[in-house]
TrEMBL record:
Protein name, UniProt field: TetR family transcriptional regulator
Keyword terms of this UniProt record: DNA-binding, Transcription, Transcription regulation
Domain HTH tetR-type, first and last residues per copy: 43-103
Organism whose genome encodes this protein: Mycolicibacterium vaccae ATCC 25954
InterPro entries: Homeodomain-like_sf, HTH-type_TetR-like_transc_reg, HTH_TetR
Positions of region (Disordered): 1-21
Residues annotated as signal peptide: none
Entry annotated with the keyword Nucleus: no
GO MF terms, alphabetically ordered: DNA-binding transcription factor activity; transcription cis-regulatory region binding
Length: 232
């Protein structure tokens, strides 16, 4: 028995329904990452987006990335990316904060003489300066000469960066103060802000490629001397 003929209009409606089903399935997969999984663990979703942002920064060779690129790299809809980070600067700030938190924690744990305030402050300021040029592709891209987008991000996020550093340094800072190694009237947050500002200054074009010995003299003369008792 021969198949009944199908009109061109019916064929078109069938094709539309088929495409509609595919579109729904595709959008469902996107929403499943952006809603269900994120509702279960927002931190996982944010970290997946930041992982994607890191790959975009490396590929771009700088900070001139777009939210669309981050969303595509993460495999989610743009609306999902915007749900967690309203703009590129917020993505970059979150990325920097995550890297600072992880790196500073490692540097604190690796201090050769943690009870020595002068030596520890010097090391905590110079380590991030050296890390920028240690071959890490993300650091190299973030601090590339044409990565102009990072400067306003760091300025905007100065308080958040100081809060991360202060939380980690707090116990050691209190011990230094109890031991009488640092001045009694020093404030923890203001101190880490000054340390962070010194690091940023040493990463400027004028200082970034100077020898380590010159950077160490600068830190001892203008930072350690101001913080540590009898450091002259």
């Amino acid at each position: 028995m021969s198949r009944p003929l199908t009109s061109r209009a019916e064929t078109g409606r069938s094709e539309s329904r088929r495409r509609g089903t595919i579109d729904v399935m595709t959008s469902s997969r996107i929403r499943r990452w952006g809603e269900a999984r994120a509702q279960l663990d927002d931190d996982v979703a944010r970290n997946l987006l930041l992982d994607a942002a890191e790959r975009c920064v490396i590929r771009c060779g700088g900070t001139q990335i777009r939210m669309t690129e981050v969303a595509d790299e993460a495999g989610v809809a743009r609306s999902t990316a915007y749900r967690y980070y309203p703009n590129r600067d917020e993505v970059l700030l979150a990325l920097v904060l995550r890297r600072i938190e992880r790196a500073h924690g490692r540097w604190l744990g690796a201090l050769r003489r943690p009870t020595d305030a002068a030596a520890s402050i010097r090391q905590l300021v110079l380590n991030p300066v050296a890390a920028v040029d240690d071959g890490d592709p993300v650091n190299l891209a973030l601090y590339a000469g044409d990565s102009s987008a990072l400067a306003p991000v760091l300025e905007h996020g100065a308080e958040a960066i100081a809060a991360v550093l202060a939380e980690q340094l707090g116990p050691l800072f209190a011990q230094w103060k109890t031991d009488g190694q640092i001045h009694a009237d020093l404030d923890l947050v203001e101190t880490v802000q000054w340390m962070s500002a010194t690091t940023s200054f040493l990463l400027t074009a004028q200082w970034r490629h100077r020898p380590l010995s010159a950077k160490r003299r600068f830190v001892d003369r203008y930072l350690v001397r101001a913080l540590v008792v009898d450091s002259h």
